[in-house]
Amino acid sequence: MSGRVCLITGSTGIAAATAELLAADGWRLMVCSRTESNCRGLAERLGCAYFAGDLAEDATAERAVVAAVERFGRLDAAFNVAGISGRRYGDGPIHEATPGGWDATLDANARSMFLSCRAQVGQMLGQEPGPDGLRGAILNMASVLAFAPSPALFATHAYAASKGAILAMTRSMAAYYAPEKIRINAIAPGLTRTPMSRRAQEDRRVLSFAAAKQPLVGGMLDAADVAGPAAFLLGVAARAVTGAVLTVDGGWSVTEAVPER
């Protein structure tokens, strides 16, 4: 993978773990998120480039892609991770969720993904295929909650809707851009230890539930558990894979578990 270029949106959790893995494999990286201190810290640790900005704003994704291409000459891959849980903005069960919570969650997750993919595909369409014969690969962050809900502990319906939208958009784009030699896939993790899941990590009921619901890991996933499969989908070993949704959930979607009362 030496010399291949990847733009990663997000700078903590799964984004950071994947950046570390790709950097160790010789990728040239640009990381982008709205928290400049996180971007700068990750970039300094890995020796990569960074761009700080809010990806839900119209121009940020385009500017991040331009910065990556100006720095490295092309864009071989993009991993779109940045997003929010939405709970603190008013997300929840649909009869309790607020319009503000819905808008904030859909903007941060689905709208930012649309803008990021729009800028990334635009760049890839205009560049020559690489040594693998492809113009680029895009991997979008979904969630197991888009298709395997857990109503007792994770009743955040705007979040689920935003991740479901990402899955639909990913498959539609994959179909459209396959003839242009652009691969587009999604990855759907289960409950993972990241800064975004800090509330869940401190909840005894959630931890007990995760131990049964994700039996392969006996609890919450580590970010590294998702980074490895993500690196595969971004790399040339997956050159024939597009329109796929890779579930990395420790068994969540195929396991029955009942939360403690």
Provide structural commentary.
The protein is α/β, with parallel strands linked by helices and 261 residues long. The protein has a single domain, classed as NAD(P)-binding Rossmann-like Domain (Rossmann fold). It has eight helices and seven strands. Strands 3-2-1-4-5-6-7 form a seven-stranded parallel β-sheet, with helices on both faces. The N and C termini lie far apart (49 Å).
Short structural summary:
By secondary structure, the chain is α/β, with parallel strands linked by helices. It has a single domain (5-249), classed as NAD(P)-binding Rossmann-like Domain (Rossmann fold). It has helices at 13-24, 36-46, 60-72, 99-125, 157-177, 198-201, 204-213, 223-234; strands spanning 5-9, 28-33, 49-52, 77-80, 136-141, 182-189, 245-248.
Q: Topology of this protein?
A:
Blueprint: E1 5-9, H1 13-24, E2 28-33, H2 36-46, E3 49-52, H3 60-72, E4 77-80, H4 99-125, E5 136-141, H5 157-177, E6 182-189, H6 198-201, H7 204-213, H8 223-234, E7 245-248
Parallel strand pairs: 1-2, 1-4, 2-3, 4-5, 5-6, 6-7
Helix pairs in contact: 1-8, 3-4, 4-5
Give the overall form. Answer: globular
The count of DSSP E runs of length 2 or more, i.e. the number of strands, is 7
How many separate domains?
1
CATH first level: which class?
Answer: Alpha Beta
Largest sheet: 7 strands, parallel
Looking at CATH, the homologous superfamily is: NAD(P)-binding Rossmann-like Domain
State Rg.
18 Å
